[in-house]
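Quick one, tokens below:
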């Protein structure tokens, strides 16, 4: 694995409950409105004022089944665009987790997080180490992400990685990927 830059975030915790759906994160009623209008309505049904109060680096903390519902990609994107650094929940809907990681938004599981964090509390999240530090000095372990996912987060998501690969190919450089055909040829030579 390449050396990862710091994936350590600190900010105010926004405490939410269970079953925060993609429709709460990206309300369907505003789907055809301009992006800046859609952002104003993120979580308004369960947390009025969230979109206006959240600051860059803040961390969403929630209960079970965060991101349930549809596969609406805008749900994760809206959080990132509002400046949310990470989402820590007791569990995630799989499609939301995949969408978030693909755009470079850290999503981390921690079984007891919603009962341990106070709304508005300042917390520190170390994504690489898989730890969250609470204001009272206690530390909770997070489910650590695989190294490949950490690399995707460190690069800001899948799109920046694909752009980097495209630049490398246009420049005619080798970017270190061995194909199955090359592996088979090497084995035949032995």
């Amino acid at each position: 694995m390449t050396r990862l830059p710091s994936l350590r975030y600190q900010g105010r915790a926004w405490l939410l409950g269970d079953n925060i759906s993609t429709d709460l994160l990206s309300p369907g009623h505003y789907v055809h409105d301009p992006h800046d209008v859609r952002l104003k309505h993120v979580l308004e049904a369960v947390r009025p004022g969230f979109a206006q109060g959240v600051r860059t680096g803040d961390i969403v903390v929630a209960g079970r089944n965060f991101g349930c519902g549809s596969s609406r990609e805008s749900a994760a994107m809206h959080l990132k665009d509002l400046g949310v650094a990470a989402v820590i929940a007791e569990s995630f809907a799989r499609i939301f987790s995949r969408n978030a990681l693909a755009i470079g938004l850290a999503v981390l599981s921690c079984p007891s997080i919603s009962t341990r964090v106070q709304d508005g509390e300042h917390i520190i999240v170390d994504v690489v180490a898989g730890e969250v530090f609470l204001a009272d000095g206690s530390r909770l372990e997070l489910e650590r992400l695989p190294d490949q996912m950490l690399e995707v987060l460190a690069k800001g998501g899948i799109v920046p990685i694909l752009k980097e690969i495209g630049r490398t190919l246009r420049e005619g450089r080798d970017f270190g990927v061995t194909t199955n055909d090359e592996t088979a040829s090497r084995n035949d030579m032995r």
